[in-house]
Amino acid sequence: MKRLTFLSHLFLLPCVVTFAANATAQEGYRTIQIDASRVVGQIKSFQGMNGTPAPVMAGLPDLTAQYKALRVSQVRTHDVMGPADIDAHFALADPTLKWLIPDDAQRDAVVKAGNAAVIFPDMSADPEKPQSYNFVPTDKMLTAIHDSGEAIYYRIGRSFGAQPKPPADFDKYASVVKHIAMHYNKGWAGGFKYKVMYWEFWNEADMIFWSGTPEQFYSLYEKTARALKSVDPDLKVGGNAVAMASTNGPYREGFIDYCSEHSVPLDFYSWHTYAMMSADPYDAVRISREIREVLSARDFSTAENILSEWNLTPDFTDVGVQELRSMHNAAFVGSVLTYLQDSPVDAAMFYRGDAAWMGLFDQQGKFYKPAYTFKAMGQMQDTPQRLATQGADTYGFAAIAGSSGDNKTVQIFLSNYAIPANFKPAVMKMPAGVPDPSLPAFDVSKFQVLPPRTDIVYKDNAGYNVTVANLPWGKKAYTMQRYRLSKTQDLEMVEQKEFSGPEFKLANEFPVDTVELIVLRRK
Question: CA-CA distance, 23 to 17, in Å (whole number)?
Fold first, then answer.
């Protein structure tokens, strides 16, 4: 996880005015046309999360029910502060950890709990012996994910604030990871058969999680990847969760070139993006296309393209937290989730889904605004047959529609987002001691930032005129239920009516920073 600042935004949320269904189309509104007779594919689930349903720190809630409500599909085991970490070591005085957790007492508790929860605490121990492992904390965490019905996406490495030095013995480290896979997939050492398929190597080695050289990184990855494949050749192994995904450097082209030249397994390449420099919801799509081109040019055309962290901003200061929990971010999330449908991204994991920093829930498990967006998009999985839809754009006004397999339900998801007129990117000054002095010096001039789009023009985005043609039930009666998420509404049902006939029309005011779910259901 990176930490940079982001300016707070002003909200423009006029009062909602509803027009009757089948009313005359309104000028200045966006025309959205849906053909319910044309299935153009399947609606993909991008409901992956960083952050587990079980609490990662004392005082946080169990979120099993909330994760189920959001239809969370996959959970990445990163930044759990101990569990799933192989050999992490946390120190109270570490400036990076202090940056994350300023309160001394809270940080002390996290340090003690984290160090007590790592899987292989003594690197001088024998990796062949079960007693060398401390599986219980990670067992508890992964069992919570498994029992909640989500797929486990295992991040190999260390959480934020742990020491960034490379392991002393690469062969031993690879052997430890091999035995972890055996424990969770083969039942070794009283373990499980959870079928953990995705094994992601490291996190943001190009930032503050790695103090070794790129060449050391390649070597450790190769040894670890081959060790995992020896457990099960069908396991998907990849990396490296790069922070600066638009930068041509040692952890993008360099890493992929090494894998190609040495025939090292690379089943997926993972990367991160936060829109703090642009506030543009289409950034993830643009970067994913870059990544796809880089992989395909190096004989990895079948390697999966995984976005393992994303959000509007990674800033978890007071200003950043308010932005992350806002309706503005909820609309951003809605537009991103929609745009990912037409991208080369194979899986995506939001940072983050729990009640820790940057999470979707408060300490009582109550939803923040973006959590409702995920809930609405999760409900679209009930109508997975994607319908032909016209009229949306890539600037923030997003729309997707689907029908159920039994042709009894049609759903429409709409999100209206806009980059604030006063938006300016800003970079927070890192506190003293961050990054760790042992890390290679950061040369910011070498980071290649995705250039902002210059063609964004907001037009006809004050409302919508939705038409659904060729409803699958013909002239039969059906109900319409409309749910709205706004600054004052929490995905509440704001309208319910009955209709009949093969065509449906609806016009409503739909201000910027609003999300809506429309459900048509045959009676």
Answer: 13
Q: What are phi and psi of 321, to 5 degrees?
A: -60, -45
Peptide bond into 352 cis (omega under 30): yes
Tokens of 19: 């027009």
pLDDT band at 430 (very low <50, low <70, confident <90, very high): confident
Pair (71, 84) in one structural domain:
yes
- Tell me what pLDDT residue 24 has: 63
Last residue of a domain, one of 382, 415, 435: 382
Asked if residue 20 and residue 85 are part of one domain, the reply reads no
Neighbours of 23 (CB within 10 A): 13
CA proximity to 53, closest of 342, 273, 346, 361: 361
C-alpha span between 284 and 517 (Å, rounded) = 23
| Distance, CA of 343 to CA of 335 (rounded, Å) | 13
Contact 208, 170 (CB under 8 A): no
Whether 347 and 245 share a structural domain: yes
Strands across the sheet containing 477-485: 490-500, 477-485, 514-522, 409-416, 397-403, 385-390, 30-42, 463-469, 504-509
The answer to whether residues 56 and 113 touch, using CB atoms and an 8 Å cutoff, is: no
Q: What is the pTM of this model?
A: 0.94
Give me the DSSP letters along 310-379: EES----SHHHHHHHTSHHHHHHHHHHHHHGGGSS--EEEES--SSSTT-SB-TT-PBPHHHHHHHHHHH
CATH number of the domain within which 388 lies:
2.60.40.1180
CATH number at residue 276: 3.20.20.80
The structure tokens listed for 388 are 């032909």
**Under 8 Å between Cβ of 6 and 312:** yes
Proportion of the chain in helix, strand, coil states, percent, rounded to 5: 25, 25, 50
Q: Which residue has the higher pLDDT, 25 or 458?
A: 458
Average pLDDT over residues 139-164: 96
* 367 and 483 together in one domain: no
Structural domain of 339: 45-382
Given this model, what pLDDT does residue 14 score? 31
Is there a single domain that holds both residue 180 and residue 62? yes
Interval 395-422 mean pLDDT: 97
Q: Collapse the DSSP code of 138 into the 3-class scheme (helix H, G, I; strand E, B; otherwise coil) and give the result.
A: helix
For the segment 55-81, the average pLDDT, to the nearest whole number, is: 95
Q: Is beta strand 74-76 parallel, antiparallel or unpaired with respect to 151-156?
A: parallel
When divided into structural domains, the chain yields a total of 2
Give the separation between CA 392 and CA 282, rounded to whole angstroms: 13
In a domain, residue 437? The reply is: no
Same domain, 180 and 296: yes
Among residues 518, 407, 394, which one has the least CA distance to residue 467?
518
DSSP 82: S
